[in-house]
Amino acid sequence: MTVGPKAPSERARVRRMHERGAYDRATIDAVLDAQPLAHVAWTLDGLPRVTPTLQWREGDRVYWHGSAASPMLEHCADAEVCIAVTLMDGFVLARSAYNHSVNYRSVVLFGRARAVTDPEEKTVRLRAMMEHLFPGRWDTLRAITAQEIRATAMLSLPIDEASAKVRSGPPGDDAEDIALPIWAGVVPLRVETLPPLADPRSPPGLEVPAHARSVRVGGTPG
User: Fold this and answer.
1) DSSP 3-state assignment of 92?
2) Is the separation of the CB atoms in 62 and 69 below 8 Å?
3) Rounded-to-integer distance, Cα 109 and Cα 157, Å
4) In this predicted structure, what is the pLDDT of residue 3?
5) Could you tell me where the DSSP H helices lie in 84-153?
6) What pLDDT digit, counting tens, does each position of 6-59 carry?
7) Using CA atoms, how far apart are residues 31 and 36, in angstroms rounded to an integer?
8) Cα–Cα distance measured from residue 160 to residue 145, given in angstroms and rounded to the nearest whole number
9) Is residue 176 part of a domain?
10) Phi and psi for 150 in degrees, rounded to 5?
């Protein structure tokens, strides 16, 4: 579901460089779908923690999972969390050190995480994650077991309090610096997937499946 722009909550509002902020779901969803790596901020015994994990979006929620023994997953259930997802698109080299920057696309989410406990729902969500990353792979795999489902904890967060922040384009140099004989511009960055490497223990003669050859992360900057 994609909705138009709406007024952000106070904690989701972009304050610094507010002109780079965006609150429409099309912009937010595009970043979430392009970058599976997320960082979850949470607290334990009053102290801040940040944990990297993989996220995936289904409709109006994001999901992440891990071991049922994970302290992060245990303590984030029914707790307030903050999730950040970022793509770095380039280094911006200006004519002054002060105006150097980076081109990026990012999303920050706030809200109360919900634990996914129903085994059938967990299975559906895990399939959705796999199909998002590697379309067609799930049906080629050994069936997931009840023990594996029990050993997996999963959380989700609604995309209710969210903001995107995006920078693109050349340096924002001061007008009086433009004519200086100093090179300025952008050094583009991208995530590149390389040819798949087969597990050397695999039976001989197995072909690399199409979904392993077509993995893409990052997308195209808007």
Assistant:
1) strand
2) no
3) 8
4) 47
5) 119-133, 146-150
6) 677 777 677 676 666 688 999 999 999 999 999 999 999 999 999 999 999 999
7) 9
8) 33
9) no
10) -65, -30
On whether residue 132 sits in a domain, the answer given is yes
* Residue 87, beta-bridge partner list: 105
pTM of model > 0.85: yes
Give how many domains the chain has, as a whole number.
Answer: 1
Residues with Cβ within 8 Å of 170's Cβ and at least 6 positions away in sequence, in order, are: 92, 184, 185, 186
Return the SS3 of 45. Answer: coil
H/E segment holding residue 114: strand 114-115
State the CATH number of the domain containing residue 111.
2.30.110.10
Whether 51 contacts 103, CB under 8 Å: no
Q: Which domain holds residue 80?
A: 18-87+103-169
Residue with tokens 């009840």, as numbered in its chain: 146
Q: And the tokens for 34?
A: 């392009």
Taking alpha carbons only, the member of 184, 41, 46, 59 closest to residue 132 is 59
Written as one letter, the residue type at 29 is D
CB 86 within 8 A of CB 167: no
Q: Cα–Cα distances in Å, from 102 out to 26, 44, 188?
A: 22, 32, 9
* Residue 118 DSSP symbol: -
Contact call for residues 90 and 188 (beta carbons, < 8 A): yes
